[in-house]
Design brief:
Blueprint (H helix, E strand, L loop, with lengths): L2 H7 L9 H6 L21 H4 L4 H17 L11 H31 L4 H26 L3 H10 L7 H10 L9 H10 L2 H11 L5 E4 L2 E4 L4 H5 L4 H16 L2 H21 L5 H8 L4 H13 L2 H18 L23 H11 L5 H11 L6 E2 L12 E3 L7 E3 L7 H22 L11 H22 L3 H36 L6 H12 L21 H4 L5 H19 L1 H14 L5 H9 L6 H23 L1
Parallel strand pairs: 3-5
Antiparallel strand pairs: 1-2, 4-5
Helix pairs in contact: 1-12, 4-5, 4-6, 5-6, 6-8, 9-13, 10-13, 13-14, 13-21, 15-21, 16-27, 17-19, 17-20, 18-19, 19-20, 19-25, 20-21, 20-24, 21-22, 21-24, 21-27, 24-25, 24-27, 25-26
Length: 631
Amino acid sequence: MSQSRVWSLIGTSSLLLGSFLVERLPAQPAFDPFPAGSDSLYHFDLARNFFRTPEEEAISRRRLVGQIEKFDPPSRDLEQYPDRVLEALRLQDCLDLEVSRHVTYLNLRYFSDTRNTEGYGDGGRLRSLADQRFAPLNNALASLPDAVITRMEDAQPQLRRYHFAIESSRRQAPRRLTPESEDLKTLGPLATGWGAQMFSLIYASTDFGSVNTASGMLSVERDYIAIAAHPDPLVRKEGYLRNNDALAQHRDVYAAILVRTAEALNAVARLRGYADHADQTYSERFLDRARVVAFLDSLADAADVNKRIERAVIDHCHRTYGLDTVHVWDLWLPEPGLALPRFTIVEATRLVQEATKPLGEGYSRELAQLLDPANGRLDVAPGSHKANRQGFSAGLVGLPSMFYQGVFGGHVEDVVTLAHESGHAVQNTLMTSNDVLPRYASGPAYFTESFAGLSELLVLEHLYRIAPDRQRKIFYLRRLINQGAEVFRTGWESRVEQELFDSVGAGKRLGADDIESMTQATASRSSVWFGPGSERQLAWLQPTQYFTRPLYRVNYVYSKLLALRYLDLLHREPAGFSRSYSALLSNGYDAPPDTLLQRFVGIRLDDPALIRGAEAVLESWLKEFESLCSA
């Protein structure tokens, strides 16, 4: 987490709790998350799960390249050859699965030992070749009208299994641009990475300064945690303000990057036949502008619970630390006398298994297989040449799911990451057991992330419930509430970004002051920390996705709300929801998210119950927090 992200988070979400801070304070007793030399057990066994040797993989890959190059399905008069089309689609599935096997293996070899750079590049070239050879069939099917598709399905009923994949390709077919488009050549760089590169370069060259303390100078960039936790309120304030001042040096340039990127993306979208970039990107996710805006406004209308959570934290700081006025730079003070919770890898895996038991026997069975080090599907122990990557899962239906983390340190956040990524991995194995096609193994980000989000909430809620004393209960409950109530922060961030794109689309030349005013007005609907005279400035620089993945953050809003709704239903109907949820996870993504959610768990993305359910969960946690703090 970068320094500016840390400081700009202070006061923006419902609870900034000091939990990240406490976990990183230097004066902690030595702790080994892999006791008794067990670290050797927690590395991948790629020979068991993929290929016995790199040489075997290379031979197999050469054979696969030959098969892909020979892939030559019919591309004309497809209606006359429904059986051949079905055969070609099945072969494409088999080849695509083998491509994924090789790419996953090569990537994991690289992450576990970064000296394997050549193989890492080979995986990318293999994927590119497959995409190139598969494109003619995909494009040919996408160009067919509904009536032709129907007749082909009547002639060969097994083609109906591929209907949604063909329909999804057809939805985007008229929107493609040729690389030779002169407009695209001009706009392309601005729309595909220029803003992110500029942002990174400017940020990297920024001098954030230092703060003088009784024990010496602290760098705002390097020692931000020590500054945020410092007992002297003047040190905390100076560190926060110095950070803001440093960011403000280039605020006009940052604003210009956002505006120019929005202009370019809107222009490219119009060349594709969309109204603007929002129309394009929401459509690709089975959403639309009106629906998203109404949803974000409804969430803001429901933000009273978030404001009451923020006020409860302020009151807790008043009582706990004796502060006359609680400022945004005070919210990372650690809970007094808290002993840092740390977990060995064995304890962490047991916690994740216990916390997710309500999701059913099938889920627990697949999770146990993943987390058993004897199966060689975990790589979380230190290694001299490992890539320094946050945790991620890898795999696809038909392949073993794997979990990688640069180094598991035993912190609460490590346990949460393990729960999150193991949720993705278990879903892959459940889909494999249900014979889901590889092309239906992934869906819109907000949908897939909602399942991992439920695992996070279950683990934090479990830690809170089993905590043996008041201090640790407060610690875990803060983390839990923060995890859930973050939906309001991502909500107003998404609304600000949409307003920015709409303003640019209307021809307005926004400057930094305009974006700041927009942020204050919009965020004040959801948070007590914004509005006239706010200490929270430049919060529009915090979501780095504004620069790297424009209009992406709305995925976090939907996924958080869905996870909270799942938890609410699980609390209300444990047995019934567990069965329905397991069926949803096993089904894959062979229909739009709304269709699948309604079919399996009775949820609609625009149903007011989605927000009400989240409110109910947060309300229950807030009451428990207030009760604990007053005890």
